[in-house]
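Notes taken during the Thursday session

The instructor put the following on the board and asked us to keep it in front of us for the whole hour. The protein is tRNA (adenine(58)-N(1))-methyltransferase. We were told not to look anything up and to reason only from what is written here. First, the residues (272 in total):
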Amino acid sequence: MFYFFTPVSVLHIKQIQCKFIQQIFTVTQGLFTLMTSMKGGGAYSHRESMEKLFQYVYNLPQDQFNSARLHPPCAVCVAGTGSGSLSHAILRTIAPTGHLHTVEFHQQRAEKVAEEFKEHRVGHLVTVRNQDVCKDGFGVTGVADAVFLDIPSPWEAVGHAKAAMKKHGGRLCSFSPCIEQVQRTCEALTHQGFEAISTMEVLLRVHDVRTVSLPLPDFGPDASAQTEPDAREETPPTSTPNHPSITLKTTTPPREMPGHTGYLTFATKPRT
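Then, after some discussion, the predicted structure tokens were revealed:
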């Protein structure tokens, strides 16, 4: 069982330190590589996989890509590049003929993710802009098949998102951690003429499923089957009756969950 995943750029021999183990390992062929710890014990490294990276490290919901209907050669605009996790997932979907236009307000973050795209050899598929999307937009007009908004005030960027989309329409997806943000975004989408607006919660709740056996309640003898008092016969007490029971599955939600909930809002720009 894997307790944590950390993306690491591995050379032929490299030392890695973390709060769990300190180790030196070499790259080998195969799906796994054994890493021997300097203090005893060890761990296994998993061969690089974008699917595993998104699932364990970035925890991206697949619904974003299914609802946006992305495929090559789609052009996509993203506001709020952040760590670049969503951008990498989109590039995985629209490559090799699509293109991504991503906007990041924070300068250092934009420079870092641009360098990361080059290291991952996808720089030719991405255009990174350092600007405020709520004021300056995406820097393109009429080119996007889909737009993703992951910013604090997405309702302020809805107009720019509509302008960036193609004339024949497109899909918009907005992520917000608070329902109040969702409400304001939906109002802006309606005002801009978007259709088929829908919202879904994305927090995965893992329930504990168990099979239990519960006794059925004993309500006593049936009153309709009783005889008149003078006609009843005394019967000696019997042993403790064997009450019937029922077997069923139960689920218990977790009391605490790492992270916070979030909401994905989808909308469609009609043809113009």
